[in-house]
């Protein structure tokens, strides 16, 4: 991972941080209506031009966790989504949202407590995070999900994500996998998701990483 590259945009009531190590330029911020983020302006992000609520709303749309915020009087902090979800992206990564505990995530990456884009093509130079290498690598998977899972009793709680060395992502907690079509496809408490790009049963690991000689470092 690159050296720390965090930019802070200071406001009177709220600060916004942007972490270039995690940003994959999806554009939820830049496309958002309003004056918080305006491309080509200096500075690009100006929290004092909108309400604190609007800042929190727009920042929390960032799927990679590159954006985060701190409310200065401590009256509010980001609240995890009520349900942990893994969105399989068409020809792209896994967008994970919820109350996340990603092994290896450091304290200076607060957005990863709530949102992350995780590599599933095997090509990222920033594993376990996506760096858009799936595009140049022509990774193809349309994001169908064939299994349904065993379900869970109650939504919420921590979702623990453990990237195994030279192997899959282990997920443990209550969570739903959403197919790229938008269909909530799988509900359960534990599974291994492919991050080598070779599984015949994507998004799940089928052991193909071994034969493929997948290396995470
Ligand atoms: S990580 Fe891809 S098949 Fe196991």
Which labels suit this protein?
26% strand; three-stranded antiparallel sheet; binds FE2/S2 (inorganic) cluster; Alpha-Beta Plaits; seven-stranded mixed sheet; 217 residues; globular; 3 helices; single chain; mainly beta
What does this molecule look like?
The chain contains three helices and ten strands. It has 217 residues and is mainly β. The protein has two domains: 66 residues, 2-Layer Sandwich (Alpha-Beta Plaits), CATH 3.30.70; 129 residues, no CATH class. The strands form two sheets. Strands 4, 5, 6, 7, 8, 9 and 10 form a seven-stranded mixed beta sheet that branches. The chain has a three-stranded antiparallel beta sheet with strand order 1-2-3, with helices on one face. It starts with 5 loop residues before the first strand and ends in a 5-residue tail after the last helix. It binds FE2/S2 (inorganic) cluster (FES). The site of FE2/S2 (inorganic) cluster has 12 residues, from helix 3.
Order of helices and strands: EEHEEEEEHEEEH
Shape descriptor = globular
User: Helix share of residues?
Assistant: under 10%
Counted up, domains total: 2
Name the ligand types: FE2/S2 (inorganic) cluster
Topology:
Elements: E1 6-9, E2 14-19, H1 52-59, E3 67-71, E4 84-88, E5 94-97, E6 100-102, E7 115-118, H2 133-136, E8 159-163, E9 169-178, E10 184-193, H3 208-212
Parallel strand pairs: 4-9, 6-8
Antiparallel strand pairs: 1-2, 2-3, 4-5, 5-7, 8-9, 9-10
The structure holds FE2/S2 (inorganic) cluster.
FE2/S2 (inorganic) cluster is lined by residues 167-168, 194-196, 198-199, 205-209.
